């Protein structure tokens, strides 16, 4: 009973029971197996065997089970496996699942599940060929276009995606549309548009965590453009919104980095010290902060303190320990953040 093979044994025994036409016993075994299933593949395999048992048992619950399996199929390969049950369902119960699955609303749900399971390319192809090609109207059309655009963006087809997102502006019941517009414009390096959308989102969400998150994204886009003074101001605004834990540590790090890039070394050191005194180690920043604090000290003329900190850090078997050893040896190649 303790064996890792016990669950599979239940399933194999259930298949044997089906062959012996002992369907009730097979169903009990499969349901036990489903409770023990450890991953989505095992759960899928169990449901396939359960569907087989119910079909052979002439139990109409098989129809609803197969429909639920279709709607929750995570990829095309699994969908194809489930569809192999369709002829038996039609022969046993007179239900034409091929006609049912062809409905655009069903195809949309299948595509949506593919997307949710990170099968973005398959979601994109299916929603286009099985939903949008049928010229749906109203809410279904808008949701299908939105799903298609998100899948385009996920597969790096940003220009086509942003055009669809723009066409959907003002459409109701499309949660996250502004987020996707800003994200996609940023991917296209159209930072001004991305920042403008995110500023509107900051206004919408006030002082909430979502507002702080969008403000952080604005600050990062400004950093990407080397606009460190503007980015510094935004990181200060983020910190004024009182983030906690890792979010606060991240904001402090980027604030210090902006100060460093602006050659405000004393201000950078002050923030680095705050981080070291406030759980930088816990959040994985300790070695990084110590290295860049040493660099700031060296740049500000505090040679002794800077070299002492580098020497201390050089004993560490880490990325920043290696950078410290190189810097002490006279290797001054640039190190990225």
Write the layout of secondary structure elements.
Blueprint lengths: L5 H14 L3 H14 L3 H17 L4 H11 L4 H8 L2 H8 L3 H5 L2 H13 L3 H11 L7 H17 L3 H10 L9 H11 L3 H15 L3 H16 L3 H13 L4 H17 L3 H12 L9 H14 L3 H12 L4 H10 L9
Q: Report strand %.
A: under 5%
Low-confidence stretches: none
- Percent helix, as a range, is over 70%
Class per helix and strand makeup: mainly alpha
Determine the N-to-C terminus distance. 52 Å
Mean pLDDT: 94
Overall strand count: 0
Structural summary, described in words:
This protein starts with 5 loop residues before the first helix and ends in a 9-residue tail after the last helix. The mean pLDDT is 94. It is elongated and about 85 Å long. The longest helix is centred in the first third of the chain and has 17 residues, at 40-56. The chain has 337 residues and is mostly helical. The chain contains 20 helices and no strands.
Keywords:
about 325 residues, mainly alpha, 20 helices
Would you summarize the structure shown here?
By secondary structure, this protein is mainly alpha-helical. It is 74% helix and 0% strand.
